[in-house]
User: Fold this.
Amino acid sequence: MKLFDNKTLLIVLLLLSSYGYIASCKRENDLLPPPASTTPVIVRGTAVLTPGNMTAANPLEWKLDKVHSSTLWSTSYMAAAGLLTGRFNQFGVHNVTDAEMTTYSVAGQPLKDSSWAFYESDPSKTYFNGYVQINQSNTGEPGRDVGCNVAGMGTTAIIPGTQNLSVTNLAKIKTTKVAYDALSADYIVTLNLTWQGKLASPTTETIVGRLKYIPRATVTLPTSSYDVFGLQLKFQFNCRDFGITSTSIADKIDIECNMNFNNK
Assistant:
């Protein structure tokens, strides 16, 4: 009888310990986080950012900080894995009219960077117009910049001290629609790209790109403070639509515009 009691006790203890182990495993699983939501949580603010008259020291009027902005391009080299990359040294945020498409004997921006507005919560009011000077493409290789880039893109060499906004040296973008992106806090942008390239006259292609807003923040210095924000636009176009026939580059050209603004 005593042997039976000991065996019974051992079985009971084993059952209890097994139950405790199973229960502990169940509690551990209960603590696992729930599956991630497939619906993104998108938070947007109500920022309204416009250039006004671009008056210095007016914190309500925003200015392009060109020194800290960039317009970059990239494409595949001869359809290989390696990329050709570069930037445009001269660009602006201005709706260049036909009358303004000429040369300017100035070192800096010849036209005000005032053709834009950004409404974070109302993209129907957001718009921007921009341009680049084609002969200001800078790959970091001087031989290429003054040689095949100029000839291949149908433009002319740089004249020192001159900003060339003539029709053969100008590529322009103009937004026609800005809308929310349903899957992120970005915006989907429809724009017109106008460029002559190696054609007899300029042509316009409609392109869809993506706009990202880098929220407003304050920069604090020992003697002053000011606010900054950024807009990043990415899009792609087919250079063959503009008469570019060089086989050294792929059909598709990727453009990235990083525009920083301040209210100094």
Notes: Residues 48-262 form a domain with the Lipocalin fold (CATH 2.40.128.110). The two ends are 95 Å apart (CA to CA). The chain is about 15% helix and 40% strand. Residues 19-29 have pLDDT under 50 and may be disordered.
